[in-house]
Amino acid sequence: MTTLLRGTAIIRSYGPTPALRGVDIEIGEGEIVAVTGPSGCGKSTLLHCLAGILPVDSGQVFYRDQELGQWSEAARSKLRRTRFGVLFQFGQLVSELTAAENVALPLLLAGSGRREARRTALYWLERFGAGELGDKRPGQMSGGQQQRCAVARAMATEPDVLFADEPTGALDQLTGEQVLAEILQEARGQHMAVLLVTHEPRIAAYADREVVLRDGVVDPSGLGIGLRS
Amino acid sequence: MSTPHVLLGLLAAGPRHGYDIKRAYDERLPRAKPLAYGQVYATLGRLERDGLIAPTAQDQDGGPERTWYALTDAGRARLDDWLGAVEPPAPYVTSTLFSKVVVSLLTADEDRARDYLTAQRAAHLQRMRELTVVKTRAGAAVDDVVAADYAIAHLDADLRWLQTTLLRVADLHREVHS
């Protein structure tokens, strides 16, 4: 499998508190990897660093063997807009915009024309069972509908990798699993890689492989905690 | 599992013969304990003896002779009682997993305990992955999805409990040594 994304020796702290203390991780093209571990282990921070949302203190992130630290901010920002998709626990839709406008947003930022962006947005809403929501604002939607809309937004640019941070965390179990199954079916169909951050074994079981973090490093035992300390 | 009650349930929609009951069992409860033909016929024999089912017809249809059975009024009442009765929430823990984890945390040396727990966790997650593939397969029958969900929920519970136990043991150790 060709490596799509690779992090080496990633270190990141919040003030004096270390969140990541030297993480090595690889994600292959089209691979679905779950990142798990107990609260505070650094899994969300790792996702943010790999997605370029947070800068690293030290260490490197490679995209198709190119080190992103060497790129200009403009080039990195373009990569994030066009090749990366991001999905959070709470959809984080723009509340003033309709569903279609929310989904069209990354397309407009990536340079699509207005009409084409809207058409593509409606296609992806339809694809994730939210076709009838096009003209609704987030306040008029249920949690599940908002998350479907956020999924459509994350997938609309057809990224190479989707970063999903507890994507089902705010949904009831059945809705969450249905949405996740749809995301992964789409990802597998398009050979899109997925980095799935979750604390639930049930959700991690949807991935091809699991990486467990413990206190800011990868824990090869997968237990996420020491036995005596 | 209560095989006699399950067979009564499979007869609730109308008469069936033994072979058909066995097939319906495999289809409706795909991941339950396998039920052998011999057990089906033995159970049907006991249910008939107890007046809960009665033979309604026989046919031969080119193959071996088949007896069709139907629920009697007593059989239907027994099934209703069973379906209405609350199952006692398990009063004590019988799982070998539970005993083994506790014993390994208490007595085994640390490396051995970690190796065991690591392997056990990996085996659980691998099984959950297989079951997740089964239930998300295109066109999966609802019987398969429901059965896989049940198994996954229990494996998930095992792993959550394991995780919580490790965190508790770590806390306890910190208290003792601080």
How would you describe this structure to a colleague?
The complex is a heterodimer of chains A (229) and B (178). With 229 residues, chain A is α/β, with parallel strands linked by helices. Chain A is 34% helix and 26% strand. Chain A contains 7 helices and 10 strands. Chain A has helices at residues 43-50, 73-83, 99-109, 114-127, 143-155, 173-190, 201-204, and strands spanning 3-14, 17-28, 32-36, 58-63, 66-67, 84-87, 161-165, 193-197, 209-214, 217-218. Chain A has a 6-stranded mixed beta sheet with strand order 6-7-8-3-9-10, sandwiched between helices. A 4-stranded antiparallel beta sheet of chain A has the order 2-1-4-5, with helices on one face. Chain A is globular. The mean pLDDT of chain A is 92. Chain B is built from 7 helices and 3 strands, in the order H-E-H-H-E-E-H-H-H-H. In chain B, strand 2 and strand 3 form a beta hairpin. The longest helix of chain B has 35 residues, at 142-176. Chain A binds chain B through residues 38, 181, 184-185, 200-202, 204-207, 210, 221-229, and chain B through 105, 110, 113-114, 117-118, 121-122, 124-125, 128-129, 131-132, 136, 152-153, 155-156, 159-160, 163, 166-167, 169-170, 173-174.
Which properties best describe this structure?
heterodimer, A: 229 residues, alpha/beta, Rossmann fold, 6-stranded mixed sheet, 4-stranded antiparallel sheet, 26% strand, globular, B: 178 residues, mainly alpha, Arc Repressor Mutant, subunit A, 2 domains, 3-stranded antiparallel sheet, 7 helices, 3 strands, elongated
